[in-house]
Each structure stands twice: as C-alpha cells, then as structure tokens.
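FAQ: What does the model actually see?

It sees only this:
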Amino acid sequence: MSKINTIQSYKQIFAVAIPMILSAISIPMLGIVDTVILGHLDSPIYLAAINVGSTIFNVLFWGFGFLKMSTTGLIAQSYGQNDIQKINKQLTQALVIALFIALILLVFQQVIGVYAVKFTAQGGQVADMAAQYFHIRIFSAPATLLIYVFFGYFLAIGQSKKVLWIMLVNQVGNMILDYVFVMQFHWGIAGVAYGSLISEYAAVILGLFFLFKSGYQIPTIQQLKSWLTPNDEMKQFFVLNRDIFIRTLCLMAVFLLMTKGSARLGELSLAGNAVLLNFFYLMSYGLDGFAHAVESLCGQAYGANDKQRFKQILKQAFVISLAIAIISSILYLLFGLEIVSLLTSIKEVKEYSSQFIIWLVIIPIVAMPSFVYDGLFIATTEAKIMRNSMVIATVFCYIPLWYLLRPLENHGLWLAFFVFFVIRSLVIHVYYMKWIKNWGN
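And it is asked to produce this:
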C-alpha cells in the first residue's frame, strides 16, 4: 500500500477518534470534578458515598451498553452496504428497546436501589448518602439509554463530531450544576445527582435535533409493527445484544467487586480507590476513542467485504493505542502524586492513594489490546467472541484472585485487577487469530 494511502487511512482514524476521545474523556472528567468538589468537603464520607453511588450507575448503565455497541456494529455494516432503509429500521428498533428498558428500570427502581446499595456499601452514613443519590439519579435512565443509541448511530455513520457535542452539553452542564448545587446551594450528594439528571435530558434534546437533521424519519404505524414483529432478523439482533450484555455483565462484576473489596477495607480504602480509579478511567476512555474508530471504519470495511482495508485499520489502531498506553504509564509514573493532590486535599486519602499508584503505571500496557479487539468484534458483530473472552477472564481469573488475594488487602485488589486484563488481552487475541483465518466463512 502506498505511503499516501497509509497517511490517508491514519487521517480517517483520527477524524473519528479525536471527537470520540474528547467526548469520552469528558466522562471521567465529570467523575474527577465530582471527586474534587466532594473531596474538598470536610469528610471522606462524601468521597466514599459518591464512589458507591457512581459505581452503581456505572455498572447499571454499562449493563445496557449493548445499545450503543450493537447499534454501531449493525448500522456501520449497513452503511458500508449503502442500505438506508435498513439503517432507519435498525435505529428505530434500538430506540424502542432503549425506552422499554428505561421503563422497566423506573418501575423496579425501589428494589434495584435497595439491593445495589446493600451490595456495594457496608451500611451507615455512606449507604444512606448513596441511596439518596440513587433515588434521584435513577430518573435519568431514559435519557442515558437514548444517548447510548445516539452515540452508536452517529459513530456508525462517521459523524463522531455530533457525539462530541452531545457529550459536551451533558458533561459541561453537569460540571457547572455540580458546582452550583454543592458549593453554592450546599445540597451535598443530592446536588451531584440533580446535576447529572438535568444535564442528561439537555443532551437528549440536542441528540434528537441532530437525529432528525441527519435524515432519520419517524416510521409509520405499519412500518413500526413490521420492524418490531419477531422474525429471524430480530432474533439475530437480540442474540447479538444478549452476548454483549453477558460480556458487560462480567465487566460490571469486576468493578462491583473492586468497590465491595474497597468497602470491606474501610472508608479510607473506598475513598482512596475512588481517586485512583479516575486514573484508569482517563486512560481507558482515551483508548476507547480509537476503539470507536475501529468500530466505525472496520464495520464499514467489513460490510463492504474489504479485507485489506479492514486489516490496515486494525494495525494502525494498535500502533496508536500502544503509544497512548505508554504515554499514560509515563505520566502516571512521573506525576501520579501531583494528580492525586489535585483530586483531594484530605491528607489521609492522599497518603493512602500514593501507595498504590504503581498499579496505574503498569495496567495501561496490558489492558490496551482488549480495547482494540473489543472495537473490532463490535464492528463485525462477533459478540460471542467478546462474551467468551470476558467470561474466561472474569470467572476463571478475577473472581478467584479477588478472594484468594485478600491477605494482601488493597494491593491484592489491584493485583487481581491487573491479572484480569492480562488474561483478557491474551484470550481475545487467540480468538482473533482463529477468526481472521476464517474470514468470510
């Protein structure tokens, strides 16, 4: 392949990835702002409570991340085939399913809230604050799930800048409202929850505007009935989402157990790990930007049956992602203590967190391949591969280590987290090598 074509391919990857990185980084930035605001109050209890509350919603909403992933994979392939009617159908199905799931969450919010807080917290004031956060934030469920579908659609058709604008409205608005509600109105943990709730519905309004501007047409009653009637295509759609959901469920279990293990060690560990996980989120959302580029561009190449283009994009995404992982590790090694100090002024939390920064230095390198491969298998709608590799890494690696390494206390939690990514990356690479040999079968 010529040098000009290679450069052009890199430009296409960055054209999709940069807006996605900027929008994705705003997600951990929101968590960082929450941490900074609550971390400068007079007690670590606020940090511990927001760690529990945000973990519950990260896990709960991540569980329905298949709405974005399946939308991206299916529509990217249809876009590569230039099938406009099929795109409209797939988008409508995803929007209806998102609203249906949100309705279920709202109906059963009381039961979900009780068990989620009970599982992640150890009772007391932290659990009470987390419950207060949950019962406000849960009403953002329809907005959050619709935003997932918007992201999947705009990413699939190569309009990632719209994703950036939606995310900026959501996160910047959230940051401003957090400051006003917590620092000015003194609403505490409830202020953070209300900030998230209001800003997400503002983002939905912008997303709907972009959606109709892009050419989406509301289906007729006859079309809607036809598109939602059970058939082989709908069965395939639900099987795809089922596999992605199982994969995400495993990832949810990892972060839930991380939080539960932190809570078992006490409020200081819970607060310290809340600070440290922001390091991981910054790195992971940066890598996600290029994984999203793989989803979009590889999906289009796969739909067009262009194997050469497909492999070229994948190789270039690996090169870029490895560079990002190395840079992240170097920055955390050199400036980890300074970053912790920015996140909290509580002396005990700073001293505790500083002991575990080394784990955030070594994790990015071993975690990187799993991000790129996830993007690849979303693009090709091979969700069963993502599912199998995640189940193996979680059930046969992370959960046993989480239990067996308890004597090492917090270092044991981070060691289990590290080994989880090692196994996940190795297993999914083995699956890829087998899959690429059978291209087209």
